[in-house]
Amino acid sequence: MARPRRSRAAEAAVAVLLLVLSAACGSRLPESDFEDRGRTTPAPDTAPIRVGVITSATSPVGGDAFTGPRDGAKAYFERLNARGGIDGRPVEVRLCDDGGSGVGNNECVHRLIDEDRVVALVATTALDYAGASRVSRARVPDIGGQPIGAAYDTWPHLYGIYGSLAPRDGTAGWDGKLYGGTEVYRYFKREHGARTAAVVSYNQAASASYARLVERGLKAEGYEVVTEQVDFALPNFRAVAADLKEQGADLVFDAIDSHGNARLCAALDDAGVELTAKVTNVQSWTSTVADDYRDAPRCRNALWATGSSRNFDDTGHPAVREFRDATEGLKTHAQWQLEGWAAAQWFTEAARSCAGTGVTRACVDGWMSRSQGWTADGLLLPVRFERLAEPPATRRTCLSVARWTDDRGWVSQGDMDSTCFEVPQLSYSP
What's the predicted TM-score (pTM) here? Predict the structure, then answer.
C-alpha cells in the first residue's frame, strides 16, 4: 500500500509598503507625485528553485537498476525550464548517488538538505533509505519516491508515488505491520483461471518482505503456492527452474530486479517450463525486454507487468504521449521513468500553489498533505494519504496491466481506471 516562512519577494514587498506609508505620513506632496514615484513594484523572484534527487545509481544490483525515476524527473524539469520554469523561476536539480548503502544515503541526505538547502526531494529511489528519519525531522517534503522499503509508510513528510493510508508516525504501517491487497492475483484468477503460482525472491530484506506479501495474497485467493528464494549475490536460477518444472506452476511472480528476471527467464526456458504468465513488477517494465530476454523467447512472450501507473507504451493517452515526446532522446524507456516524470510534475504543482507566499519547504509540504486523489493528468491511479487509525479490512483497488509482445511492445490489457476489485488487505512485516 501505498501521501511558510516569508519569502524574499514577500519581505521586499513589506519593505516597500513601509517606505510608502512613512512618506505619506510625513509629506504634503500632491497625490499625482505618489502615483509616479511612490508605487514601487518589487522585481519578480527569478532565483532557481532547488530540488534534490537521491538515487542508488551505483548499487549491488547493477548500475541502471534504480535510475529510471531520476531520468524521468530530469526530463520533466528540463522541459519545464524550457517553457519558463515555475512562474519564471527555473528548477535546479541536484543529484546524489548514495551507492546503494545506508551510509551513502545519509551522506546524500545531509548534503542535499543541510548544504544545498533543497526545497524538496523528488523521485527518491534508494536501495537503503537510511536517511528517511532525518528528512522527516527536517520537514523536507520527499515527493514521489519509490517505496522499496517501509520508509514511505513510516515517516511524515514523505510522500511515496503510490500514496499511503498508514499513520506515518515513526512506526512502520500499523504497529509495525504493512498491508497490501490481492487485486493482482484476483485478476489472473478471473482472466486466466490460474490456480498454481510460484514466488521467487532474493534473501534480501525488501525482496523477502514483498515476497511474503505476494505469497499471502495468492493463498487468500485460493492458489497453491510454491516459494523459491535465491542468494542475492550468487542466485542459482537453474535450481529454481528445475523445481518449478517439477511443481507444475502456471504463474510465476517475482520480487527481484530486471537483471535477475532475465536470468530467471533464461533458466525457465532452458528447463522447458511452460507458463501461462511470468508476472513481473514495475521495475522490470521496460523497453529493453527484447534484448534483456533474447535468450528466453518462450518466457519473454509470457511476460506480464502490473502496477499503479499507465503503461508507458500507451501513447494514445495524451499525458503518456507528452512524456514520450520529452524523453525521445533516451536510449530506453521504462515505467519507472514515467513515474519519475509524474513525481516531478507533482512537485511542480505543489510549488505553483505557493506563488503568493514563496516556494518554501513548509508551503510545498502543506500542499502535498492535501493532494488527495492526485493522478498526474491520468498517469497514476488516484494517490491518497489518509493516515487511518486502523488498517482497512478491504479496499477497492484498481490495476494497470500490460503484456509484452515482440511486435508491439507492452500492450495494455484494459483500462487501469476500470480494472478494479474489492479485495482483502493483508498484513505483512517489512
Answer: 0.85
